[in-house]
Amino acid sequence: VQSLLAVLGAVGVVALSLLEALLIAVLVRQWRRRRRAERSLTERLRLEELLAELNGRFVGLTAADVHAESVRSLGEVGEFLAVDRATLVAPDEYSGVFRVRGWARPGVKPGPAVVSLRQFPWTAARLRRGEIVRFSRLDELPAEAATDRRTYATVGVRSLLGIPLVADDVMMGSISFSTVRGERAWPDELVHRLRLLAEVFASVLARRRADEALRQSRAFSVAIVDSLPGRVMVLDRTGVIIAVNDGGEAATPHLAVGVNYLERWRRCAAGGERGAAEMLRGVTAVLEGTTAQFTFEYQRRREDEARWLEFRVHPLRTEAGGAVISRIDVTDRKHGELEARRMRDELARVGRLVTMGQLTAALAHEVKQPLTGILTNAQAGRRLLTAGPPDLVELRAILDDIVRDDQRAADVIDRLRAMLKRHEPEVVALDVNRLIRDVVRFLHSDAVIRSATIGLDLTPDLPGIRADVVQLQQVVVNLMLNGLDAMRGVPAERRRLLIRTERACDGVRVAVQDSGPGLDPASRERVFEPFYTTKAEGMGLGLPIARTLVEAAGGRLWAADDEGGATFVFTLPVAETGPFPAGASREPVPAGR
Amino acid sequence: MRKGRLLIAVVDDEESVRKSLRRLLSAFRHDAVTFASGQEFLDALPAHRPDCLILDLQMPGLSGVDVQRHLADRCVRMPTIVITADDETRGRVPWPGTVAYLCKPFEDHVLLATIERAVEEAPVP
């Protein structure tokens, strides 16, 4: 019994020991499991802390520092995850290649700095679709990823987790974590956490891209504005200058940021400076949005020097409003224009002298008619006085006629002087029908001498046209003389010059048609070349001068294709006034009355 | 030679010239009949057969030369004094019947002397 008890005791001890050992083992296992759970929780917390810290780190970072910070952060995460490489892959902004930036564990060879999508077609396609790429071993990669597998093997990757970076539905690149020394699993929970990291990176890259675009756009605008030869100012909606370039000029205090540009013009306008009020109105209208744009030429006088400035005011089409004003010194251009105009006017005047030279016979005829009337009347009066008791009624009639004829002679001379005198051309609203009638009167004697008739077909109530009266008379005289010359070879009874006026879409049209042999198509343009002439006399300047004058007035002059004879047509723009109510008519006026 | 009151036709498109010549000729006791165009004169020819014609050269429609051509065609010979405002026409070869070219404006005594000469030289019809 004792030995049985001893055996039972021993068995009991053994059983107890075993039980104890089992208990210890269970406890140890439980403790280990708890430790693992605790460690996992701690790691998770640490990862989350790390992610939160990284997120905060990118806030307020300048664009230039983003890449360096990304590499540093990837290193910290990589270290924490105990991987060998942690990289950010993003397309290069300028070249379009995929650049790899990142971290590699000390002692591990870094991966390639640039990758091509051709090397990772399967990976790239998945990432583009917004899907993650993960494999614990290379042989987990599917058959269609054969190319990718070879490339991974070449660069030593044995396991990898790649997460796409997507911001606002735009694929910005990817981040990836990989091992080269061994294989590693990528549990879902980790993937979930790292997706958060990817979101941080994506938003950082998106911001960097937006910053870069903004910076480029600013640099672009500044470079353009600075390169402009004139002054460029940007005003806010109240007229305060918010940006200004130097335009190659010395800095002036009234053209500086913060100065109210409108105030300056207000002062100039109050001081009675010419044009200042108009400029002020224009800029204000653009700022208020009542005018789409405003262009203004302004003459600035300083000491004894006058400069011409051209202002262009465009609205700033932003919510805040404002305007951009460019100011260019156009003095040289203006002098050039004035000189060209002076030359043109002088040429026109010389042209008039030449024309008058051709008209001497007609002008002599024109003056001699009233002179004949005056002399003959005077002699008749003298005879009445000597022959007996004078007939006072008849004498009075004679004197009246003398006065009238004298007036007529003076009118001819006045018209001649007006055509010849040096005058400052003045563009005014003109009644073209009236002007044509005046010219026809002027050329009446010339037509009589040439045995030609002049017909008029004038549309009544035409709007006024913008031109200088003397220069437009010259145009009509030149065209009429040209037509009269052209009819020299035709029988006298067929020499008929017809002048028509009518309304046209681009103003008022005047046509001068002769009944001469006409122009062949090749000559139609050549007749406007200086010194081109088919006449024995004449310099070939009449038509070129006429065209120059018409074009200077904003019109066009051409030789039209017409049946029989030649037709010269010109148009002139309408002046902004109502029609002339002159009793215009369609009557054919014979040259000789 | 015929002296005394003559019937003189004046053809000129210029009213002032016609009117003043009529006055002058009347003051010198001649009868003047005026026409504003060559055609008017030719149309009135059967009714008037003037002793002398004062004819303007430059006229619209029929010119002075045209009128003289028509007269020649009708075999009408009439002493004619051509008046012109254009000096250059004076040197022209005169059309038959032309007694003189007078340049406008002309003196009354020259005109009267020319009329006298024209009438004297004219063949008696």
Structure at a glance:
The complex is a heterodimer of chains A (593) and B (125). With 593 residues, chain A is an alpha+beta fold.
Give a quick set of tags describing it.
heterodimer; A: 593 residues; alpha+beta; disordered C terminus; B: 125 residues; alpha/beta; five-stranded parallel β-sheet; 4 helices; globular
Task: Explain what this protein looks like in three dimensions.
The complex is a heterodimer of chains A (593) and B (125). Helices cover 49% and strands 21% of the residues of chain A. Chain A is of the alpha+beta class and 593 residues long. In chain A, helix 8 crosses helix 15 and helix 11 packs across helix 13 (469-486). By secondary structure, chain B is an alpha/beta fold. Chain B is built from four helices and five strands, in the order E-H-E-H-E-H-E-E-H. In chain B, strands 2-1-3-4-5 form a five-stranded parallel beta sheet. The radius of gyration of chain B is 13 Å and the shape is globular. Classes of the chains: A alpha+beta (593), B alpha/beta (125).
